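I had to read the description of the data format several times before I understood it. Each protein is reduced to its one-letter sequence and a matching series of backbone shape codes. The format is easy to grasp once an entry is in front of the reader. For illustration, here is how one protein appears when written out as sequence plus structure tokens:
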Amino acid sequence: MLLIKIIFLSTIKVTKKAKKTLIHSANEMKHEAHGAQQPRHIDKIGEGASTAQRSDSLVQPINQRFPKEPRYSSSWIRVCLSIFLLLYFLIAEIEVKAGELHAIVTNRDVTEKALSVNSLRSIFSMHKKTWSDGTKIRVFVLPDDDLLHQRFSKEKLNVFPYQLRSTWDRLIFSGTGQGPIQVNSNEEMLARVANTPGAIGYLWTADIDENVNVLEIK
């Protein structure tokens, strides 16, 4: 019985000593592991720094190739805006005046000096066919897409060019009348009206000369 007790106490002492040895070994291993991780951490920092340097070296040539857009000052923007507005109102004024810079012209042998809007519309719709003295009316027009023809139609006759064209087409297709004589330029318009008895047409005022009469529209 005494022998068993001695063996049991000896076993406890050995177990405690072994436990201390194991704890001491574990602490040493933990310390060594912590020390081994520090150089790797430093290496990662170094690698990160080198990566950032490489990124900066790549960004610099890109910035040199694509420089930032300059910032315009507010005064420069105001100057540009003022110029734009000036040009806009100047163009608008020219367009308004352009409506007054064309006139109805006739051959010099035509005795009429003035016409009403209704009479003018009747002539260019090809319904009125003779002047008051019996002379046959010869109507000359420019192409539908010509600026002068468009202004003449809208401002003198109060109709659109396509409406005039529809009126002429109905007369032609029905066989009840004929369309006007189309010319291709202002110069041709002037020449044809000046040299055709009973002719009527329209011109920019700058193209009118002494070879034609200007017809007043009341």
In short: Residues 29 and 81 are 77 Å apart (CA to CA). The longest strand covers residues 102-107.
